[in-house]
Design goal:
Blueprint lengths: L4 H6 L13 H13 L5 H8 L3 H13 L3 E4 L2 E4 L1 H13 L4 E4 L8 E7 L10 H9 L4 E8 L2 E3 L7 H4 L4 H9 L6 E7 L2 H13 L3
Antiparallel strand pairs: 1-2, 3-4, 4-7, 5-6, 5-7
C-alpha cells in the first residue's frame, strides 16, 4: 500500500455537487503544512496552499471527520493519529527546497523534493514530469542517487560533474540525499505551482 494511501483515499470524492476545485497535491500539501506547524489558522493555510476559503473548509472537515485534525479557537492542529500519519509521510518526503533559475530543470522558480527510497521506482522520469505538468508546472526532472552521485535515468551518471552548479551543494546541504533516494526538480513561474508539481511527481513514486 502507498504511504499516502490513507490520505489520498480520504479525498476520493463521492459527494453530490460540483467537482472539488483542488487536486490531490493540494490536499497532501495542506496536511503536511499543518503538520509542520504546532497550530495554523484556516486563513493562513488557505494562503499557503493557494486555495479559497470554501475549499480549505472542505479539506479541514474531511481531516477532522477522519480523526486526523482538531480545531480550536487558536487554529488547526493534528491529533495523535494525524501526527502518526504525518510522521510516516515525512519519513518519505523531506521538506521542499526552493531554487531559482538553476540549470537542473525548466522554469524560473524551482522546487526540489527528496523522495526517500524512491529511486527504485523511477524509470526514465516521464511519469513524474507528466504528473507535475497536470497540476500547472512547466516541467520536472527526476534524479536518482547512485553511488553518492545524482544520476539521470538513461542519461548522465554524475550530474554534478556534467552540469556543474553551486546549487548542487545547496541541495545536498538542505535535503541530505542518500543512496537510493529520488530527487525531483520541478519548475514553473511560481513557487507554489512548482511545489505542487513536485508533490504530484512524488506521488508516482510512493
Amino acid at each position: 500500500m502507498s504511504t499516502f494511501a490513507p490520505l489520498v483515499e480520504l479525498f476520493t470524492f463521492k459527494e453530490r455537487g460540483p467537482a472539488p476545485s483542488f487536486s490531490t497535491p493540494h490536499l497532501v500539501l495542506a496536511f503536511l503544512v499543518i503538520g509542520d506547524r504546532e497550530t495554523l489558522g484556516r486563513h493562513a493555510l488557505a494562503r499557503r496552499v493557494g486555495l479559497g476559503d470554501g475549499a480549505v473548509r472542505t479539506v479541514l472537515r474531511k481531516l477532522k471527520d477522519a480523526g486526523y485534525l482538531k480545531i480550536s479557537a487558536s487554529g488547526c492542529s493534528l491529533t495523535k493519529s494525524g501526527r502518526q500519519l504525518y510522521s510516516r509521510l515525512r519519513a518519505r518526503l523531506a521538506r521542499t527546497a526552493l531554487v531559482e533559475h538553476s540549470p537542473f530543470t525548466i522554469g524560473s522558480k524551482q522546487a526540489a523534493l527528496l523522495v526517500k527510497g524512491g529511486g527504485t521506482s523511477v524509470h526514465i522520469g516521464i511519469e513524474q514530469r507528466d504528473s507535475a505538468m497536470r497540476v500547472g508546472a512547466l516541467g520536472a526532472t527526476t534524479y536518482v542517487v547512485k553511488g553518492a552521485r545524482f544520476a539521470i535515468p538513461g542519461g548522465s551518471s554524475d550530474c554534478e560533474r556534467d552540469f556543474p552548479s553551486p546549487d548542487w551543494k545547496k541541495l545536498r546541504s538542505e535535503l541530505s540525499p542518500e543512496e537510493g533516494d529520488a530527487l525531483i526538480l520541478c519548475g514553473s513561474d511560481d513557487n507554489l505551482k512548482s511545489e505542487l508539481g513536485a508533490i504530484a511527481a512524488a506521488l508516482t513514486l510512493v
